[in-house]
Design a protein that fits this description.
The chain is of the alpha+beta class. The protein is built from 13 helices and nine strands. The chain has helices at 12-25, 38-49, 55-76, 103-116, 143-156, 174-188, 193-205, 212-219, 225-241, 253-264, 268-276, 283-299, 354-368, and strands at residues 81-85, 89-90, 122-126, 137-141, 163-169, 319-322, 325-327, 333-339, 342-348. The chain has a five-stranded mixed β-sheet with strand order 1-5-3-4-2. Strands 6-7-8-9 form a four-stranded antiparallel β-sheet, with no helix packed on it. A hairpin with a 2-residue loop joins strand 6 and strand 7 (325-327). Helix 8 (212-219) crosses helix 9 (225-241), helix 9 crosses helix 13 (354-368) and helix 10 (253-264) packs across helix 12 (283-299). Mean pLDDT is 77; it is low at 308-315.
C-alpha cells in the first residue's frame, strides 16, 4: 500500500519569495494592470480595441461599402470612364467596316476636339494577350475620334492629347464586337452597300459567324428583309471581285445589283479578265469596263446545262428605254405613270413572283419611311 504524502502549508518566507518574483515579472506593465495576470491583460486590451461604434460611424462605414460595390459593378459592366494612353490602344485589333475616311470630316472633328474637348468617349475591350506593340486594349468603336486625337498629338505635341477618354467594355464574342461596331457606324454615318457586304464576309471568314448568310442576318438584324437581300448581293461582289475592284465603294445600288446578278450567272471570269486589263481611277470609269461584260453576257445564248427555256428571239435591250421605262437584265420591265390620284409603277416580266414582290414592297417601305 502506497504511503500518503503529507502536504505542508508554505511558510511565511515562501509566500514572501513568490510574491516578489511575481512583481518582478510584471514591473514593465502599466500601473493599472500591475498585479493582473497576463491573460487578463490581453483580454482587456482586445476589449478596448473593440469598443462599439456609434450610429454615425456605422452609417459612414455602410455608405463607403455601398459606394465601393457600385463602383465595382460599374467597372464590370463597362460603364466606368477612364483615361487611357494612346499607345495602349490597338485600332487594328478588329477589321474595320469603314473603308473610306473623309479627310474633311477628320479635320472638322479634330478642330472640334481642339476647341471643346472630346465629348464622347471611345469604346475599347481588354485584349486576351498584348497587341503588336504591347497594347492592352483593342478598339471597339470611335475609330475617327481616336485618329483625330492622335493627329492633334502629332501636330501640337501637347501632353493633354497623350490620353483619351474611354469606356472599357466587357470582353465579348467576336460576333458581338462586330455587331457593336456596325451599330455605331450605321447610326453615326451610314455605311455604303459594299462596306456592309464586305464586313459580313470578313466577319464570317474570321469565325465570328458560321457563314456569310448568318453574318448578314446577325449584323443587320434591325434592317428590312429587302435590305439584307441587297447586302448579300454586295457580299457576293466582295467575295468574287473584291481583290479586283479599284472603286467598289462607288458602286450605286442599281449597278451593284446588276453586277451581282451577272456574277450569279457565271460572269466572274470574263469580269476579272476585263478588270485586269484596265486601271480605272474612279467609279464611273470602272463601271464602263464592267457594263459591256454584263451586256455581252445578257446577249449571249443561254447555256442549256443551266436549264430554262432557250431563247428564240433577239434579246431585249435593258436599262432605261425612255424617261418612264426601265428594263432590268433579268427581263423585268418597270413603267412609270401618273393619274389624278398620284404616281403609278407597273411591273411586267416572267421573273416576277410573290417572294420578289414581297421583297420589293419591303424595300419601297424602307425608302418611304426614311
Amino acid at each position: 500500500m502506497a504511503r500518503r504524502r503529507r502536504l505542508e502549508a508554505p511558510s511565511t518566507a515562501d509566500l514572501t519569495r513568490i510574491e516578489e518574483e511575481f512583481r518582478s515579472e510584471t514591473s514593465g506593465r502599466p500601473a493599472a494592470l500591475r498585479g493582473v495576470a497576463p491573460i487578463a491583460q490581453v483580454a482587456a486590451e482586445a476589449a478596448a480595441r473593440l469598443q462599439p461604434e456609434d450610429a454615425g460611424a456605422r452609417a459612414e462605414r455602410a455608405r463607403i461599402e455601398a459606394d465601393a460595390a457600385r463602383l465595382h459593378a460599374a467597372q464590370e459592366q463597362g460603364l466606368l470612364m477612364v483615361e487611357l494612353p494612346l499607345d495602349q490602344i490597338d485600332e487594328a485589333a478588329m477589321i474595320r467596316d469603314r473603308m473610306v475616311m473623309s479627310e474633311e470630316a477628320i479635320l472638322e472633328l479634330r478642330q472640334s476636339i481642339a476647341a471643346h474637348g472630346l465629348r464622347l468617349p471611345i469604346e475599347v475591350f481588354e485584349l486576351e494577350k498584348p497587341g503588336r506593340a504591347g497594347q492592352r486594349y483593342g478598339l471597339l468603336s470611335g475609330y475617327r475620334r481616336l485618329l483625330a486625337v492622335r493627329g492633334l498629338r502629332e501636330l501640337t505635341q501637347a501632353e493633354k492629347y497623350s490620353n483619351i477618354r474611354a469606356l472599357i467594355r466587357p470582353r465579348a464574342s467576336s460576333g458581338g464586337a462586330f455587331v457593336s461596331m456596325i451599330e455605331e457606324n450605321e447610326v453615326r454615318e451610314e455605311l455604303s452597300h459594299f462596306e456592309r457586304g464586305r464586313i459580313a464576309v470578313i466577319a464570317a471568314r474570321q469565325g465570328a459567324f458560321a457563314n456569310t448568310e448568318e453574318a448578314v442576318e446577325r449584323l443587320f438584324a434591325s434592317g428590312s428583309k429587302a435590305k439584307r437581300s441587297k447586302i448579300r448581293s454586295f457580299a457576293l461582289i466582295f467575295e468574287e471581285l473584291g481583290d479586283m475592284l479599284q472603286c467598289p465603294e462607288g458602286l450605286t445600288e442599281r449597278r451593284g445589283l446588276q453586277l451581282a446578278m451577272a456574277l450569279r450567272r457565271g460572269a466572274e471570269r470574263p469580269l476579272r479578265d476585263a478588270l485586269s486589263r484596265h486601271a480605272p481611277d474612279n467609279a464611273d470609269a470602272e463601271w464602263s469596263v464592267i457594263e459591256p461584260v454584263i451586256r455581252s453576257l445578257d446577249e449571249s445564248p443561254r447555256d442549256a446545262r443551266r436549264g430554262g427555256r432557250p431563247r428564240t428571239t433577239a434579246p431585249l435591250r435593258y436599262g432605261w428605254i425612255d424617261d418612264k421605262t426601265l428594263r432590268t437584265s433579268s427581263g423585268i420591265t418597270i413603267r412609270r405613270a401618273t393619274d389624278s390620284k398620284g404616281h403609278i409603277l407597273r411591273l411586267e416580266g416572267e421573273a416576277l413572283n410573290s417572294e420578289l414582290m414581297d421583297s420589293l414592297m419591303l424595300h419601297i417601305q424602307s425608302l418611304l419611311e426614311r
